[in-house]
Amino acid sequence: MSHSLNEIEAMSKRAARGSGMSWGLAEEAAKGTRWLSAFGFSGSELLADFLEMNDRIPPIDVSPVSLVAEIWHAPAHRMSPLIAGAALSDCAQRLLSRGTITMENVNFPLLAVPFMGGAALRLGVPVSAEWQGARLATDGQRLCVQATDEALQARVADRVVFSAPAEMTGRHEPVMRADVPDDAWARLGVFAHRTYAPATEESRLRGAGAGLTDND
Amino acid sequence: MTDISCRDPNLVMRLARLGSMHQSRLSFMRILTRRMARENWRFEQTAFEIDAAGVGHAVYTAHGPARSYSLIAYAHDLPPEKRSDRVIAEAWDATFTLFDGVPTAEDIERLSKNIPVQEAGRVTGSELSVSRANRSVRLWEHVVSELAEGHQPSVEKIDAVGYLMRTTAVYGSGKLGAADREMIADRPEFQAPFQVEMLSVYLTRWFVTDLVQYMADTRAQSNGAQAARLAPDIARMMGIGNSTGLGMAPFLLNHPVLFNNWMAARERAIQAVRSVQRASDSEIALFHELITRSKVTVDTWKSEHPIQIEKLSALTKDVTQVTTWLDSNDLKGDHPWDALYRWAEETLSLEGQEWIASLVLEPYGPLIDAFAEGMAADNTATFRIAGAMKVGDLRSALTDIYSWALDTDWAAPENKARAWYVSEEKLEPRLGERFEEPIEEYEQPLAPGRDAAALFQALAHWPDDTQVADFLLRHPEHRHTLRRAQIVGRAPYAEIRDNTISDRVLPIDMLRCKLSFFGATKFDPRSDRWVRICMYGNAPLPYELTSENADYWVFPDTPEAAA
Question: pLDDT tens digits for A116-132?
């Protein structure tokens, strides 16, 4: 079904929160899913797959151990692309001074790509990511993709290398609508539902505070 | 020479003051009517296919210089027991969409299956908004029956309600599949915030006056009589009501940059006018005229809610004091508006202070109207956290922005008595009692003060020169609040500097603030979290709109002027 990008962002935020992420990370997941959707990727499906994989896993287990390490790795040997991506965006300046940041065992590496967009905007230079022969580069506004579908949909990449400054070749402009398969939407909905309080008569009356008659 | 600065966010961004704000030149309705008049927009009704029971559809098209927009209205026959302003309602008297362009018969047919069911339907990128409205039972029947009997309706009764229909939600920005704001943000007519929604309501008001006339004509005909034509002066008095609950309150917290841009535009305008060294005779005369006309609004502003009754009585007193002050101050001295504002800040209630703050802007369109251009927001640039910021700098930012929160005892139950949550029923936002209901695990991040205090505490043992990126790696739970603090550091009016979860919080303060930017008048709280307002009351109907009446319509003519 055709969805607006705002709908995708709102659903993704709730779903990420429902999977146990902090609000701040849920916001990152939502912006990232929106960004991927705007470039024609099935961001919602990838996010649903990832949330099912990491449902309610403690973030510390799938976060980089250190941001100054030569190679970023996670204690559980499986890196969350959202946590690592957010950290990459936070470390934009360090990325530029180091030239590259390499991460190991990253799940769903495509989900980390939107954070390069953030870093590129902050730095004012393009940033690229490479894994399994795939290369994506962005200046924040446009995206260059040279990759097989297999790499784009990989559930794990042994090694992802982010570089800045990077070169832009062959540009995709973002689009404004996205088609989300009903199944992916429903799977996100299961996570999102966890954030809704069950409706009770009391909350219906008190919580919304419609005290006086509203039919006059 | 005094250098007048913008008002301190620590003064402005308190809930009691935000809940006392009034419409101004920078209100979104007035930005829209000024533009449409300036650009000679043309308006036409292109369909009105409604049966004797009041069921069918109508189309109203607004033609701008480059593009046209059409309100498609669906009218329904709603049993009284189904009429509810609550978000959880499932049927309405009328439902609407603003269509991008001129709809075909297929569009109207497709939308007739989706718009009448609102949240249960789906729309596409061709639709810019989805909304619904219910009749005012009090006024609708009175107007239909009077007209059907050949009389004009009672002006007193119209004054008491203010509108024939009230909208209970106007959804834009991609809701239900509609076009994202980003799809249309580069069109000049939608550059200012909420112009789609304001246009939709403006055309809705026209439809409603047509519908009430049609229903009166139909009733008269069935009695073998002819109905009276609703007098244009009376039609103009009626606005569109709006009934707004908690759904709107989190908006200001969830869109900090946008909120900052609204507030900053108004504060810069106030600063610019206070900095005017001398007022011309015509500026002074216009101000006096609008004070007089504004008194009519205050006099006819009714509320049954104890909080608003008290505020209105203070405002009435303030109006008298302002009149007395103006008797002895001719505004011909140095920095007259600054003098008036300073006096108001020392003397009047918050209602009166904000009333004056908005009113002094009126004579200065050329000086301040351009501030409206900065009221929209693109969040992309501000969303990213600056991870290289030092912990010491973050600490001092928190101390500056959230000093009130750092001084609050967050262990005291009364300071966090409430929690914001989303109910699974139509995803309705609600405010519950943290210690009495099982809602805490569903709490939304809408208590920035409490969360900032928690962040401050978590930072206590981190060295000043650490980068916040390293702190966030260990503490993802503070990521939301740290982002917020960085935003407010750049956008000082982005944050409500007050407790949004205390046992004394009044969500209507947030609703009123937002609605005042829309240009709403006659705020009438129905509870501490539910408010009714009037939009476009006194405005020219679309086919009456000219440059002469596009700006000051919000101020009713005084009885003497009308006579």
Answer: 999 999 999 999 999 99
Of B219, B244, B269, which residue is a domain's last? B244
3-class DSSP state of B275: coil
Q: What pairing do the DSSP bridges indicate for beta strands B418-423 and A196-197?
A: parallel
Write phi, then psi, for B446 (nearest 5 degrees).
-120, 30
Domain membership flag for residue B495? no
Which domain range does residue B137 map to? 41-244
Q: Does residue A97 sit at the B interface (CB-CB below 8 Å)?
A: no
Nearest-CA distance from A101 to chain B in Å? 15
d(CA B563, CA B557): 10
Kindly state whether residue A28 falls inside one of the protein's structural domains.
yes
Structure tokens at B192: 């200012």
User: Is B440 a member of any domain?
Assistant: yes
B378 touches chain A (CB under 8 A): no
* CA angle (B321, B325, B331) in 5-degree steps: 145
* B480:A24 CB<8 A: yes
Interface membership of A64 toward B (CB under 8 Å): yes
| Structural domains of chain A, count | 1
**Which residues of chain A have a CB within 8 Å of the CB of B243?**
214
Q: Which of B136, B383, B427 shows the shortest C-beta gap to A31?
A: B383
Q: What is the DSSP code (8-state) at residue A133?
A: T
Last residue of a domain, one of B194, B227, B244: B244
Please judge whether B479 and A86 are an interchain contact, meaning their C-beta atoms are less than 8 angstroms apart: yes
Q: Which of residues 101-130 of B touch A (CB under 8 A)?
A: 122, 124-125
Is residue B184 predicted with pLDDT exceeding 90? yes
For residues A61 and A215, give the distance between their C-alpha atoms in angstroms, rounded to a whole number.
Answer: 54
Domain interval for residue A35: 2-174+181-195
How far is residue B267's CA from residue B287's CA, in Å, rounded to a whole number?
Answer: 19
SS3 B442: helix
What's the ipTM? 0.96
Q: CA B179 to CA B354: how far, in whole Å? A: 35
> Cis omega before residue A165 (within 30°)?
yes
Q: Is residue B223 part of a domain?
A: yes
Other beta carbons less than 10 A from residue B204's beta carbon? 24
Instruction: Specify the higher pLDDT residue, B294 or B138.
Output: B294
Q: A153 versus A199: which is more confidently predicted?
A: A153
Residue A203 lies in a domain: no
- Structural domain includes residue A200: no
Q: Which of B307, B166, B139, B316 is nearest to B230 (CA)?
A: B139
- Interface mutation vs chain B, best among A7, A90, A122, most B CBs within 10 Å: A90
Taking CA–CA distances from B87, the nearest residue in chain A reads: A208
Residue B186 in contact with partner chain A when CB distance is under 8 A: no
Percent of chain B past pLDDT 70, that is, above it, reads 98
User: Is any Cβ of chain A less than 8 angstroms from the Cβ of B180?
Assistant: yes
Q: Any residues with CB less than 8 A from the CB of B162 and at least 6 apart, and which? A: B237, B238, B239, B241, B522, B534, B537
| Residues B239 and B163 sit within 8 Å (Cβ to Cβ) | yes
In a domain, A141, yes or no: yes
Flag whether pLDDT at B382 surpasses 80.
Answer: no
* Model pLDDT, residue A173: 79
pLDDT digits (tens, 9 = 90+) for A65-94: 999 999 999 999 999 999 999 999 999 999
How much is the mean pLDDT over chain B?
95
> pLDDT tens for residues A24-34?
999 999 999 99
Q: Note whether residue B373 is domain-resident.
A: no
> Based on the structure, what is the number of domains in chain B?
2
Q: Which of A6, A193, A197 sits opposite B173 (nearest CB)?
A: A6
Residue with tokens 């202070």: B353
- Tell whether B458 is within 8 A of chain A (Cβ): no
Between A179 and B321, whose confidence is greater?
B321
Assign B563 a pLDDT band (cuts: 50, 70, 90).
very low
| Stretch B286-304: mean pLDDT | 93
